[in-house]
Amino acid sequence: MITLTYQYKLQQTQQQEAEINHILDVCRSVYNYALRERKDWLNSRKSPINSCSIITEYIIPADAPYPNYNYQAKSLTIAKKTNPRLKSVNAQVLQQTLKTLDRAFTEMKSLGKGFPRFKKRMRSFVFPAMLKNCLDNNKVKVNY
């Protein structure tokens, strides 16, 4: 299977630019929250038993599952029901953000890359399911 990637230079209005910046900001928040959740879980497992400090150690129950992609995507679905900021962005875009984080963790383990870093700003987002006729008259149609 061949995957094609297209890049387009968009000429957007101020309203469209504000919406794109909003989507990027929400994606950044989701990425950083998911990364913090994973870091806290990993740090809670590092403390030696004989020198555990309740002041500086992360205390997460021992039976808490590792926050992998599936766990975090399920939590995202639950959070979207109550958080209007998350509701304003397409669910697939936020799931792709979690997949990006999951890919970074996979590369960290398998390729020996460094630990993923928190994002100050996101530069892109992905719509995995585009419309059949999304290109028309030098315009890109995106439904979200």
Give the tags.
144 residues, mainly alpha, two-stranded antiparallel sheet, 4 helices, 2 strands
Outline the fold blueprint:
Blueprint: H1 14-44, H2 69-82, H3 84-87, H4 91-111, E1 135-136, E2 139-140
Antiparallel strand pairs: 1-2
Describe the structure.
The chain has helices at residues 14-44, 69-82, 84-87, 91-111; strands spanning 135-136, 139-140. It is mainly α and 144 residues long. It has a domain at 65-123. α2 (69-82) packs antiparallel against α4. 10% of the residues are buried. The mean pLDDT is 83.
Number of strands: 2
- Give the SSE order as H and E letters: HHHHEE
Roughly how much helix do the residues carry, as a percent range?
40-55%
The global form is elongated
> Total helix count?
4
Radius of gyration: 19 Å
Mean pLDDT: 83
Oligomeric nature of the chains: single chain
Unreliable spans are none
Sheet having the most strands:
2 strands, antiparallel
End-to-end Cα distance:
27 Å
Structural class, by secondary structure, is: mainly alpha
Query: Strand fraction band?
Result: under 5%
- How is the largest sheet built, in terms of strand order? 1-2
Brief characterization of the structure:
The chain has helices at residues 14-44, 69-82, 84-87, 91-111, and strands at residues 135-136, 139-140. It is an all-alpha fold and 144 residues long.
